[in-house]
Amino acid sequence: MIKHIFSDMDNTLLNATGVVSEGNIKAIKESKIPFTLVSARAPMEMQDTIDKLNLTSAQIAFNGGLIFKPNNGSIEKISEHHLLLSTVQEIIEHIKTDFPDVSISCYDTDNWYSEKVDFGIKYESKITSIDPTIVNFEELFQNANINFFKIMLITPTAKEVKVLHKFITDLKISDITVQQSGNNYLEVTNNKAQKSHGIKYVQELNNLKRSDLAAFGDGHNDIPMLKMVETPIIMENAVDEVKQYSNLITKSNVEDGVAFGIKKYLTH
């Protein structure tokens, strides 16, 4: 008997337009199994889904960098691991110099920052229905009171994402983790920000065993989460490297795959 479900959002729970479908909403609510979003997204980008699913328990943002409880439209922070300001500055300076065609933005708890509206920003805005705050990064970094949770990098091609990943890894910055969250997406977070960290917190909070847990995922950054549960369910649209982590495959994110997986594997 599964007692808790964890789910990635983009390309998993959400459809091609970045919205949770009525079919997924119905199946999640009817299952009556507690449900936790585990996402690279910021809390503000998760709010619409939280509202539609009426979620009130702990939710996981920034790949585990922030665990929070929704509270009447605002959030109650439970655990947070942010990046050092000097680390954010160093990485962004390197990317601007060596990869001028890469879309760069960063996040604190409540804001998404970018210096310009480029191809990556337009795409992200379209799927999240949120616009960034346009700033000058150098001026923004003068404010030492800001805690950044994530640098988001979007490359023009899937090939370039692998080159960029190696470049950042080769900088040998000890307190970061670099994770691919889509074909063209890299997320840089604190090295304690892992989806597995968020799941471990929820598991211990509710005194749950590994056998009580299920998870849905599709991407590289979902692998730590999928390894934490006894019932990992992989989206049909998942990348091949992820499909090796489970023989339970559900339909794609545009075919209500989470709903199908709940009915087929968790509540039958």
How would you summarize what this structure contains?
The protein is an alpha/beta fold and 268 residues long.
Task: Write the SSE topology.
Blueprint: E1 4-7, H1 9-13, H2 22-31, E2 35-37, H3 43-53, E3 59-61, E4 66-71, E5 74-80, H4 85-98, E6 103-107, E7 112-114, H5 119-128, E8 133-134, H6 137-140, E9 150-154, H7 158-169, E10 176-182, E11 185-190, H8 195-205, E12 213-217, H9 223-228, E13 231-235, H10 240-243, E14 249-250, H11 257-266
Parallel strand pairs: 1-2, 1-12, 7-8, 12-13, 13-14
Antiparallel strand pairs: 3-4, 4-5, 6-7, 6-9, 9-11, 10-11
Helix pairs in contact: 2-11
Q: How would you describe the overall organization of this protein?
A:
It is a single chain. This protein is an alpha/beta fold and 268 residues long. It folds into two domains: 151 residues, HAD superfamily/HAD-like (Rossmann fold, 3-Layer(aba) Sandwich), CATH 3.40.50; 106 residues, Hypothetical Protein, Haloacid Dehalogenase-like Hydrolase, Chain: A, domain 2 (2-Layer Sandwich), CATH 3.30.1240.10. Helix content is 36%, strand content 24%. The protein has eleven helices and 14 strands. The strands form three sheets. It has a six-stranded mixed beta sheet with strand order 8-7-6-9-11-10, sandwiched between helices. It has a five-stranded parallel beta sheet with strand order 2-1-12-13-14. α2 runs parallel beside α11. It is globular. The model has no long low-confidence stretch (mean pLDDT 95).
Short key terms for the protein model shown above:
Hypothetical Protein, Haloacid Dehalogenase-like Hydrolase, Chain: A, domain 2; six-stranded mixed β-sheet; 268 residues
